[in-house]
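Structure tokens please, single chain.
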Amino acid sequence: MALAGSEHLRVETADGVRTITIDRPEARNAMTAAMRDELRELFAAAGADDSVAVVILTGVDPAFSAGVDLKELSTWPVNPDPDAPRPPVVDPAAVIRESTTPVIAAVNGVCVTGALEIALSCHVIVASERATFADTHAKVGLVPAWGMSALLPEAVGRGKALELSITGAFIDAPEALRIGLVNHVVPHEQLLPTAFGLAGAIRSADPVSVRTMLELSRRGAGMPRDEALRLERETMEAWRVERGV
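Here you go.
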């Protein structure tokens, strides 16, 4: 069933799974400020809809996304008049990290820079065999703003993350799997079926437990072990009181 969406962000929901497809192939699915603002609204709507158990985020071939729209970014004034209208500024990766609904990234092609930050903010990454990944911030004279400096080291380790970020090197899907950047690599035609299969497994789990696991993961990230274990115990006790067990 087709639901609210737009020209560049298509939305479909079936069997409790909401699929958001970035549809701007002429720009390698680069995301404008308006698209990022809309993405925030779409994730808020998914979180508020109890019938949505999982969100899948993907792109129209041949790219997942090139990240932020650099052409649009170049038109923004460096020191704008504080009284002048400004484009909406949204960190889409942070929006996904705050999601109370599990999010699966189905990476179908090129996934670079801001798009890689978005994918790393999802809870599971499934990559097509055609997918490639890179952090090109330094290549284009930018610095990360959507979490790369924390997310990439968490996924692949500090040394490998630094290498990728300061060289801007591209890696293919098998290498991404080898270093722990993605969860699965599958034949291109199996990308969405695999993502839907994972979504079905998530749907079969207790939704309260799933949301609690997401919250524990989010809040526990970067905590010392003792603090993370304390958070787990406190969460478990609150869960027991709420359920009367």
